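Thread: Newbie trying to understand structure tokens

Hi all, I'm a second-year student working on a class project, and my supervisor (Dr. K.) asked me to get a predicted structure for one chain before our next meeting. I've only ever worked with sequences, so writing a 3D structure as a token string is new to me. If someone could post the tokens and maybe explain what I'm looking at, I'd be very grateful. Here's the chain:
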Amino acid sequence: MADELNTGLSQNFIHNFIDEDLAEGGRCEGMKVHTRFPPEPNGYLHIGHCKALTIDFGTAEKYHGLCNLRMDDTNPTKEDVEYVEAIKEDIHWLGFDWDDRFYYASDYFEKMYEYAEGLIRKGLAYVCQLTPEQFREYRGDVTTPARSPYRDRPMEESLDLFRRMRAGEFPNGAMTLRARIDLASGNFNMRDPVIYRINHAHHHRQGDKWCIYPMYDFAHPIEDALEGITHSLCSLEFEDHRPLYDWVVSNVDIPYHKPRQIEFARLGINYTVMSKRKLRQLVEEGRVSGWDDPRMPTLCGLRRRGYTPASIRNFCERIGVAKNTNTIEYAFLEHCLREDLNETAQRMMAVLRPVKLTITNYPEGMSETFEVENNPNRPEDGMRTVTFSRSLWIEADDFLAQPIPKYKRLYPDGPECRLKGAYLITCTGFNTDENGNVTEVLATYDPESRGGNPADGRKVKGATIHWVDAATAVDAEVRLYDSLFSDPEPDAAGKDFLECLNPDSLEILTDAKVEAALASARSSDHFQFMRQGYFCADSRDSRPDHLVFNRSVSLTDGFKA
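---
Reply by user tm_fold:
Sure, no problem. This is what the structure looks like when written as tokens:
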């Protein structure tokens, strides 16, 4: 039945339900598991959607079934083809595919309209003319039933008005079509819910053909049933809507197997907002550079920052599938990325805050090369050649004119230090500008310590520091990213999420020096800058004549298991 080794997807309560359905005598005995991922194309996918699409596509893979991609485009106000294409790109980037099973909710508008007329004829729907204010007033409460003076409107009259709604005779808000279920239900979603509303808006695919649009709770079960979905997997906020889902598929005239809705808890991550409305506000107000800003939780933003598909899928798998809502540490997402990049990223040397190091006893005009490994975890990645000369770049904080206690890097008359993979050096002095800023560190080297190992085997007391040859170094801009929000719960009730923005979420270093090999870096390449973190070339701004690197994640792991 299920192949645990197929995707690595672990067993969870959803799979337990599916196993029951597939068992002998179960509701899906002999059927192929068929799921769907139905995003609304009104924004870009974010890490919260990742959990849902991993569950939808991953479950289909696990059971050797099918998964459809469907654009839930029943609300024309904010939907756009730009978002459609971005969603498709993001899903493919994560490694999932829908083959030829790509649909739009709007593909079914005519069918949905027919089913709505069918409900009217059965006495199960009616046209209501309550204003929005009256609708709220007549909604009732837990002890008082809802009411509508139009509930007993004759079928022929409702059918005529519904057809005139479609013809565009009435303005927005003048009328709705409501399902006739139970005004006294303890579940307010069943108190004669609206299933169609008037909306004179241009649709990104249908143009101006329609001025009435189905509500999600009516459209979604119909779409699932028409596509032969066996298991409609959705987030927990739809649990109270499940009776309506079942009511729709049971009462419209679809002669197909009825899908089963199963709910799971949404993904919550601290220091993050998941609302597309709030993310759009950040973009539209210019508080970030766009939907793909590397600080955004969108998949395009995470991709631009340097997150890998493997790290995100691993994150979604390891957080599990549960019924209870919980908040995951953002540090765990970083932990998953760090694990992946530690195994796969090439090691490079880059100096982010450079100061010149001159080796005074190294012959002027001389140059040599060293062979260094690309990744100690992957011998198959081989070696690369780096150049070495009298003038190098080192990190400014690898030198102090006046050392502090336990400082083991460079300072005048300090301990011998090891230049990574090259030689042992000893600091002899420094030069400053007119403002007292250090402009050059002076040192001597031991010619008998090539490779960083002294010929006499003496113990090196100083630290190992990285460097870049000044003769071949390439200039680069480096962007250091931190959390977009300084508050761990920016989305909590009563908070203005904009006031929780982190003013230090981005630091730009414009004078970095990197190895010459990085001049050809592509955005799909991942690097560990030694002692600095993991980086990638920026997909939007980096060019051969102006390299820009984004820090994906630091070397220090802040996640505590």
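A couple of things are worth pointing out once you decode it. DSSP finds 13 helices and 27 strands in the chain. Residues 1-9 have pLDDT under 50 and may be disordered. Feel free to ask follow-ups in this thread.
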